Amino acid sequence: MQEFEQALHLSATAVVQKLDQLLPVPQDAESRLHEAMRYAVLGGGKRLRPFLVLNSAALFAVNTDCALRVAAAIECIHCYSLVHDDLPCMDDDDMRRGRPSTHKQFDEATAVLAGDALLTLAFDILSRPETHEDPHVRCELVAMFAEAAGARGMVGGQMIDLLAENQNLPVGAIARMQQMKTGALISLACDAGAALGRASPPHRQALHAYAFDLGLAFQIADDLLDSQGDASQIGKTPGKDQAAGKSTFVASMGPDRARTQAQFLSDQAVKHLDLFDKKADLLRQAASYIVNRQA
Amino acid sequence: MQEFEQALHLSATAVVQKLDQLLPVPQDAESRLHEAMRYAVLGGGKRLRPFLVLNSAALFAVNTDCALRVAAAIECIHCYSLVHDDLPCMDDDDMRRGRPSTHKQFDEATAVLAGDALLTLAFDILSRPETHEDPHVRCELVAMFAEAAGARGMVGGQMIDLLAENQNLPVGAIARMQQMKTGALISLACDAGAALGRASPPHRQALHAYAFDLGLAFQIADDLLDSQGDASQIGKTPGKDQAAGKSTFVASMGPDRARTQAQFLSDQAVKHLDLFDKKADLLRQAASYIVNRQA
Q: B208 CA to chain A: closest CA distance, Å?
């Protein structure tokens, strides 16, 4: 686990460096926007999605700088979604990663705009020749990102999540919501690595199946942390989902069954990687890290 | 002028039909999101930016369906920006195109998400092979859209606009802000038509120069309408810019000079089209329509 955490840390450092290069330098009359974009993206986080991009791409010997650009793009999408999700009209969260959330540090209007600009920046990054020499691959990446982040993916999941407050959703509906809200971007990370590497269909399918199970396991672990975690460790307000009457896996199946289910999904995720050699070991370790993490 | 208005109307009808096809059909637990997206996009409007895409593309004999897809994508971007701009934390506008704005018809959270999903949908549309057979062109379109809509374009302009409330900006700073906030998308419309048609550099430059002047003329005309227009005609609350202490061309130079300047820019825009034959006549007419419109 220590080896894995070191690898995760190294990958996060490389991604932050790439993000720093790609984010606009604060200047001119609109510098407040650039500052808010940097605040929202450069303020820590495990950088799990970028890690999955980099380690999926590494299976196919993708050029590291290309993979880092795609990793940065997915983090822009993830961070934009957090900025908008934290807004008072949405989840109304004042803390994020142990710091004031973007609308508390700046203001609501700036947070809305910074989120919009980060989403747009992700597509900017993907479209440029530096991301991949083949424009077919770049178009495929743009399409994959748009599908995973849009109305049938992440944003659709956020809509269901908001509508589900104070409702008892059946576990199947919770799984669909979480698959859209969180799972779509985790699957995207692995799919994007495979697309960058022009992987064969069996390799693509294996990685996609891995990411699907990993995404659900991740969400269940997240629900467990929210219900039992500690604010100083998780960097946001714990118990919020419960207070908001949200439909979560833990609320639906209880903490013990949820923990068993997360472990089952994690083991199943690892099995999907059987057709890869030891180059996939960090991805295998990611599956157990995700269900055992304390933050 | 009547011939022009008929052409504008015909183009709007075709674009609305294409948008209707491309927008998600309301279904599943997230249908409220799809409904809000459709409400925000299908509720009327002159569809000026799509008109400019279609008529720029027509100069280079671009396939109509391809041009319609790009026209639909630019309208998704424009409409998302209106939805977010109308939010209480931004311009706080209850009316848009004579109807309740999206957050009044639905709620703020749904409006934030619908805007996010529309922005994402625009890139989805651009990335697909149906938009252009050549992936180089599609990547170029994605890059152009991201640049025009992002932190250095439209969103940057919105940030400056918000910061400029109750400040007296010099006219040069107002021109830069408006060029980013409104002009960038109007230029994009013409640039995208030229990109679809793989136009030669002189043709691209001419169209870009036309759109640049047109964009400023459009904004000055918009300021004049806001300061002197009638709510039932312009479909939104008039006098709002003034009440909010916004820096506008009209506030800075007075209505008479503003009107003269808009006419000058419109004439100059038309001159940039000299290297095109009568196929550019509708674009020429658009320039005078824009400064003479009453709504």
A: 20
Separation of alpha carbons A50 and A175, rounded Å: 23
Cα(B290)–Cα(B295) distance, rounded to whole angstroms?
A: 10
Contact partners, residue A135, CB within 8 Å, separation at least 6: A129, B135, B136, B138, B139
Cα(A249)–Cα(A252) distance, integer angstroms: 5
Token readout for A155 is 């944003």
With beta carbons less than 8 A apart as the criterion, state whether A162 and A181 touch.
no
Contact between A119 and B117 using a beta-carbon 8 Å cutoff: no
Chain B contact for A170, CB < 8 A?
A: no
B123/A135 touch (CB, cutoff 8 Å), yes or no: no
DSSP category for residue B130: G
Given CB atoms, is A253 within the 8 Å cutoff of chain B?
no
Of A119, A127, A160, the CB nearest to B143: A127
| Residue B107, SS3 per DSSP | coil
Question: Largest Cα–Cα distance of chain A, in whole Å?
Answer: 54
Number of residue pairs across A and B with CB atoms under 8 Å? 173
**In chain B, which residues have their Cβ closer than 8 Å to the Cβ of A151?**
24, 30, 33-34, 37, 117, 120-121
Q: Do B159 and A32 touch (CB under 8 A)?
A: yes
Looking at CA atoms only, how far is residue A127 from chain B in angstroms? 5
Structure token digits, residue B223: 């300021």
Sequence letter at residue A136? H
Alpha carbon of A5: minimum distance to chain B alpha carbons (Å): 33
Confidence at residue B161, expressed as pLDDT on a 0 to 100 scale = 94
Nearest CA to B113 among A226, A159, A152? A159
Question: B223-240: per-residue pLDDT in tens?
Answer: 999 888 655 555 666 667
Among residues B193, B181, B211, B184, which one has the least CA distance to residue B286?
Answer: B211
ipTM field: 0.96
Q: B169: which DSSP letter? A: -
Whether residue B143 and residue A124 make contact (CB cut-off 8 A), yes or no, is yes
A160 burial (CB, 10 Å; 0-12 / 13-18 / 19+) is buried
Q: How many CA atoms lie within 13 A of B60 on its CB side?
A: 22
pLDDT digits (tens, 9 = 90+) for A190-243: 999 999 999 999 999 999 999 999 999 999 999 999 888 655 555 666 667 776
Whether pTM > 0.95 for this model: the answer is yes
